[in-house]
Structures are given as C-alpha cells and as structure tokens.
Design a protein that fits this description.
Layout: H1 2-18, H2 21-32, H3 37-73, H4 80-97, H5 104-126, H6 128-131
C-alpha cells in the first residue's frame, strides 16, 4: 500500500517536470525540427501518464484497505477473527473494481503480507517456545 502511495507521488513529480515550460519548449523544438528524439519523448511522456493513472487508481482502491490492515495489526490474537472479514471483503472489492490491480500477481503480494501479519501476531501470542 505504501509502495503505491510513494509511486503515485514520485510519478506526480515526474509528470509535473514533464509539463514544465522548459520541457514543453524543448518538445516543441524537437517536433519542429523533426528530431528523431521527438518520438521517443512522446512515448516517454505517454508512459509516465499511463503509469500515473495506474498508480492513482490503485492507490485510491487500496486506501480503505490500509485502515482495515492497521486494525488487524493493532489487534490481539483473540480479536483477529471479526477483524479479518473486513480486510478480505475490502480486498475482494479492490479485485472487483480496480482495473489495474485485478492481476493475480498483485493480489498475491497483498495476501502474502496479510498471511505474514497473521503469523507474526500468532507467534507473539503463543511465544516461540510454545511453537517449537
């Protein structure tokens, strides 16, 4: 979740730089002189725009998940069960509505993080000597 927030912020900065007056003037010169670099610049600009749209959308859908996961992190082991359902429900909503996050590889990462969190909470509850 933090990754997508950071990615959106970083892409916003790059996008702002690409829209600056100096860069626009440079692009205009490249276009007017029919430079071979103009096509590459256009592709780069479009890639940044597409990546920014993706990061914004994913960030928007993952924000509600952040608070439910924080609720899980603050829970005691015996309080996990009622707090796990909202996390999984929110993750299902992300899967259903986010066009950019609806990929098994992306959902798997979040599920792995949730599993690791549950293991950590269970380990703290039981203690290492009780597990082994």
């Amino acid at each position: 979740i933090d990754f997508w927030e950071s990615r959106a912020r970083n892409l916003e900065c790059i996008f702002d730089q690409l829209r600056s007056q100096k860069v626009r003037k440079m692009a205009e010169i490249l276009e007017r002189t029919e430079s071979s670099y103009f096509n590459s610049f256009k592709i780069l600009f479009q890639d940044v725009v597409n990546a920014l749209k993706e990061a914004r959308e994913i960030n928007m859908y993952l924000k509600p998940l952040k608070s439910t996961i924080e609720s899980l992190e603050e829970s005691e082991f015996d309080q996990l069960e009622p707090r796990l359902a909202p996390v999984l429900h929110t993750l299902c909503l992300v899967w259903a509505h986010s066009t950019h996050y609806r990929m098994p590889s992306r959902i798997i990462v979040v599920l792995q993080e949730i599993c690791n969190l549950l293991i950590r909470i269970a380990t703290e509850f039981l203690g290492p000597e009780e597990i082994f």
